[in-house]
Amino acid sequence: PVTNSMISTWVVAALMIIAALFFKSSLKRGRFKKFTGLVEFSVSSLLIFFEELIGGSLVRKTFWFLASIFFFILFLNWAELLPGVGSIGWGKAAADGFLIDKPIFRGATADLNMTLALGALFFIFWLFLSLKINGVKGFILHIFGPKGESNGFMFIPLIIVFIAVGFLEVVSIIVRPFSLALRLYGNTFAGEVLLDTMMKKIPALAWIVPIPFYFMETLVGFVQAFVFTLLSAVFIMLSCSHEDAHETGADLQEAC
């Protein structure tokens, strides 16, 4: 069925496509305005950050995906704060006012189906890129193969240890998309509940009490989009990085 969160997703996606086409048209016509400058600044800042994190060669293969995921989640999160999202629709009269139980629009990232779809999309892209860069043999060796050089009588015990660690790595890989999805869903849904609670806490002041929390949720929306994208980039780097990525992201790899 077509749900209200799906409609919100389609609206945000359509607006992003229109904005991208307008940006492209402005560049072709040589019309540089505040909008084009803001887009260029945002994209270039994100590109520089990920280039320093995962390396130049890897960022050229993944930036289109990482940037798209970041801006898509960001605008979905901010769209939830717009008036009318969750507050216009069908409902019934209640003791403390009119209760909306079937809103026309609903926050997309507060729907677990949406965040699970984003996690699955990341997993598919990660698996495709890992197999493409490492090959099937290299991919398997990356998970189960011995790390570093080992000789002598400890060689066979170390192989057994690394195979056991490989199975743990497989579990970790399977959990990654679910952890990304649940983290995004939990924080977004908690923000919706917080705003709803603040509106109903003092009905007479429902127009002013939630304002500080709106600013906080604006920041949370940005942070959650950035964290989802950052973790996606780190997971990709750990399995697909080459020498340049190891040099620029060695400290972060060791921490992970």
Q: What is the makeup of the main sheet?
A: 2 strands, antiparallel
Helical amount among residues, as a percent range? over 70%
- How many helices in DSSP terms? 7
Q: Detail the poorly predicted runs.
A: 243-256
Strand content: 5-15%
Mean pLDDT over all positions: 84
**Total number of strands:** 2
Give the terminus-to-terminus CA distance: 40 Å
- Overall, the morphology is globular
Quaternary organization? single chain
Order of helices and strands: HHHEEHHHH
**Rg to the nearest angstrom?**
23 Å
Structural class: mainly alpha
Strand order of the largest sheet: 1-2
Q: Strands, helices and their partners?
A:
Elements: H1 4-29, H2 34-54, H3 56-79, E1 89-94, E2 97-103, H4 112-144, H5 155-201, H6 211-240, H7 243-255
Describe this protein's structure:
- This protein has seven helices and two strands, in the order H-H-H-E-E-H-H-H-H.
- Helix content is 76%, strand content 5%.
- Strand 1 and strand 2 form a beta hairpin.
- The longest helix is centred in the C-terminal third of the chain and has 47 residues.
- The C terminus is likely disordered.
Give a short synopsis of this structure.
The chain has helices at residues 4-29, 34-54, 56-79, 112-144, 155-201, 211-240, 243-255, and strands spanning 89-94, 97-103. By secondary structure, it is mainly alpha-helical.
Characteristics of this structure?
2 strands, 5% strand, two-stranded antiparallel ribbon, mainly alpha, 256 residues, single chain, 7 helices
